[in-house]
From TrEMBL:
InterPro entries: Aromatic_CoA_ox/epox (IPR052703), Ferritin-like (IPR012347), Ferritin-like_SF (IPR009078), PaaA (IPR011881), PaaA_PaaC (IPR007814)
One GO-annotated biological process of the protein: phenylacetate catabolic process
Organism field: Piscinibacter sakaiensis (Ideonella sakaiensis)
UniProt cross-references to NCBIfam families, sorted A to Z: PA_CoA_Oxy1
Gene3D superfamilies assigned to the protein according to its UniProt record, in alphabetical order: 1.20.1260.10
GO molecular function, one term: phenylacetyl-CoA 1,2-epoxidase activity
Pfam families reported for this sequence: PaaA_PaaC (PF05138)
Protein name: Phenylacetate-CoA oxygenase, PaaG subunit
Upper taxonomic lineage: Bacteria, Pseudomonadati, Pseudomonadota, Betaproteobacteria, Burkholderiales
Gene Ontology CC annotations of this record: cytosol
Length: 312
């Protein structure tokens, strides 16, 4: 019978049908989704921190309002994604426990510091740009609740990317020489970590083959990274910034840009907890969780009172 269920599941995947929360699914498919969706949720929540640092330092009311809205969106994306993971039979408490204990992964990119205001613009341009490139194919993910969450998330990410690009364009076209230098410095620091967001090269990607077969991932890490590089070259030209890669050039035969070697030792060091801000990010999350305990207790006490009143 197990074999028949598995065969029916594979047939639905092959036919391009969505798998829904209550449908039968192989245990490995469920675990893969919990892993990816929870890592994604953690990335959104931890991803609020680097930019959050600049909310009280934004240079104008307009920029502050935009940044506040963006960081709130990220909180919303995290909650959506935790809810999508919960449909697979894990609890949000378990997932957060794993994050706070340092057992769960989140995107490497959020372990780098935001040193200047230009970093906020560059995060929008490059980090949200990379996030969209990776997430648009996830709107066609075989798991329905994740795919549907991605549709809304991608719409919001596209506003995030544009606000970043526009902020950089303003600094590059109307700013001072010092502001232009600040933008270039931020691009130099974020470029390579942004390329690492797509994950290890296909040959070293443990989960890709199975996730592609199951329609969880629709495009490979390297294919998305290449598309991102190709898109950024033109955008960098419009902005008037350089990309810090002497090997970056158009390859006519491939119809794509060649680019330099990524420092995978740096990537794995950051993924394994040894990036510039890993400890600080985790400590901030744990402290926010602890400081929020009274809110959770009050909400539960309120709910108990309502339930008692309903029962009376
Ligand atoms: N950082 O076999 P693969 C955002 C891990 S965007 C850390 O290739 P997979 C929006 C991977 O988990 C960022 N770890 O894995 C925003 C695995 O470890 P495991 C979040 C990484 O899953 C913008 C191991 O390496 N987006 O938050 C990274 O098939 C601005 C082997 O790798 C998503 O999560 C990395 N960069 O492919 C918010 C998108 N790359 O689990 C605020 C959904 C790989 O065996 C501000 N996720 N690893 O211990 C995905 O598309 C996939 O999970 C990949 C990795 C493509 C990230």
């Amino acid at each position: 019978e197990a074999q028949a269920l598995e065969a029916a599941f594979e047939a639905r995947i092959a036919a391009g049908e969505f798998i829904e929360a209550k449908d039968w699914m192989p245990e490995h498919y469920r675990r893969t989704l919990v892993r990816q969706i929870s890592q994604h949720a953690h990335s959104e929540i931890v991803g609020m921190l680097p930019e959050g640092h600049w909310i009280s330092r934004a240079p104008s009311l307009k920029r502050k309002a935009i940044l506040l809205a963006k960081v709130q969106d990220e909180g919303g994306h995290g909650l959506y994604l935790y809810a999508a993971a919960e449909t697979l039979g894990v609890s949000r408490d378990e997932l957060l426990e794993a994050l706070h204990a340092g057992r769960a992964k989140y995107s490497s990119i959020f372990n780098y510091p935001t040193l200047t205001w230009a970093d906020v613009g560059v995060i929008g341009w490059l980090v949200d740009g990379a996030a969209i490139m990776n997430q648009v194919p996830l709107c066609r993910c075989s798991y329905g609740p994740y795919a549907r969450a991605m549709i809304r998330v991608c719409k919001e990410e596209s506003f995030h990317q544009r606000q970043g690009f526009e902020s950089l364009l303003t600094m590059m076209q109307q700013g001072t020489a010092a502001q232009r230098a600040m933008v270039q410095d931020a691009v130099d620091r974020w470029w390579w970590p942004s390329l690492m967001m797509f994950g290890p090269p296909d040959a070293a990607s443990t989960h890709s083959a199975q996730s592609m077969r199951w329609g969880i991932k629709r495009e490979s890490n390297d294919a998305l990274r290449q598309r991102f590089v190709d898109a950024c070259v033109e955008q960098a030209r419009v902005l008037g910034v350089g990309l810090p890669d002497p090997d970056l050039r158009w390859n006519e035969a491939r119809g794509a840009h060649d680019f330099g070697a990524i420092d995978w030792d740096e990537f794995w060091a950051v993924v394994n907890g040894h990036g510039p801000c890993n400890r600080e990010r985790l400590a901030t999350r744990v402290s926010a969780w602890e400081r929020g305990a009274w809110v959770r207790e009050a909400a539960l006490a309120h709910e108990r009172k309502r339930a008692a009143r309903r029962a009376a």
